[in-house]
Amino acid sequence: MNAIVPIQLQTMNSLEIAELVQAEHRAVVLSIERLAKRGIIQLSSMVKVENKQSLSPNKFTNAYQFTGEQGKRDSIIIVAQLCPEFTARLVDR
Question: Could you say which DSSP state residue 22 is in?
Answer without folding.
Answer: T
